[in-house]
Amino acid sequence: MPTIKTEVFEIDRRYLLKLTGTMGIGATFVSPTDLFAEGACEKVDTTPPNVKPEQAGATLQFWIDGLHFGPRSTLKSRANVTLFMNLKQSTASYVESVVLLDPQNFVVGARYFDASMKMMDRNFVPYVRFENVELDHAATYTCIYSVRTGSNLKLYTAKIEKPQISTLNTTFLPQTMRNDFQTFLVGNIANKTPGLITTPFQYYTANGLSLHCARGRVTDMASDGSSFNVNIDFMHADAGTNHYMRYFIVMDPVGRLLGFVKRAKKDDPYVVDGVAKVVPDANGDLTCNVGRITENQRVDFNVPDLQIGNIADCPYVQFYTEDSYDAIARNMIRLR
Q: Is 218 within 8 Å of 335 (Cβ atoms)?
């Protein structure tokens, strides 16, 4: 998933409210960069410069569905933008508002929170989703998270430059997955545009949709997300040693892992702790049960903690199926 390192500014909350008032769609927001230039706020030192994505408050993770027209049509592109920042909510300090600004600092979208609004996953601020917003693929947009601590605000700012459709690429993918997807996600001479785009399907080779699409359903989920089961259909039967259903992956709205199954070889039944993950459905067709990522998987695939989500926090999940030869397919399941 795409990520951006944030800049952090500190300002008196009362002064900012005096400047901006109540923010609504189309309102103008005073840029923290402009305030800093005028000496009206302080910039918080976030050194060292190469902050790691798994460090708290270091990065904004985002996912964009849409923008498929780009420069190819006079029809203005609209998209859904989902944001995640690992900032924690408490009575002493919490994210109060999130705004998305266009290049002229007009508000494209705004969300408001209080201390009680938080994820089950380590009390992070919930996902922020702006649906059906108009985005210019050649423009730069600014996202600002305001964190209230008493009468002070910290403004975590990040710029989304020239937004494009998001891709499932090597960013934050566990190294083992990255190696398995070397050609498709990383790219080589034969594949100059790597990454899975957010259309429902994409092929390695010229094959049809009928045998290469993702179909699945949530069959079980604990209220706290401690367990779940996403039952995903095989795209097709195993066809050969190098052409078989290999990966079944469930991710949160910004591409963090919720669970996955990797089959090692053709006809691999994939049984874990005596439980069959690959099972026939009522029609005898094969399906795969994907549950919450296990500790062994986290260690074996070297998955950073921050790149693991909790399904109970997700308004929807995205899931992928991949057949190791022809195609990788994506779909979504809404949970609320």
A: yes
Average confidence (pLDDT) over 300-321: 92
Give 3-state DSSP helix, strand, coil % of the chain, rounded to 5. Answer: 15, 40, 50
What one-character-per-residue DSSP string does 287-318 give? EEEE-SPPHHHHHHTT--GGGB--GGG-SEEE
DSSP state of 185: I
Give the separation between CA 235 and CA 195, rounded to whole angstroms: 20
How far is the C-alpha of 58 from the C-alpha of 132, rounded, in Å? Answer: 27
CA dist 304 and 253 (Å) reads 17
Which has more pLDDT, 15 or 250? 250
Strand ranges across the sheet with 78-85: 3-5, 59-66, 78-85, 128-134
Which residue, 222, 321, 227, is CA-closest to 278? Answer: 321
Q: Which amino acid is at 293?
A: I
As a whole number, mean pLDDT of residues 71-81 equals 76
pLDDT beyond 70 at 184: no
pLDDT of 335 reads 93
Cα separation, 287 vs 279, in Å, equals 5
> Quick check: helix, strand or coil at residue 201?
strand
pLDDT reported for residue 54: 47
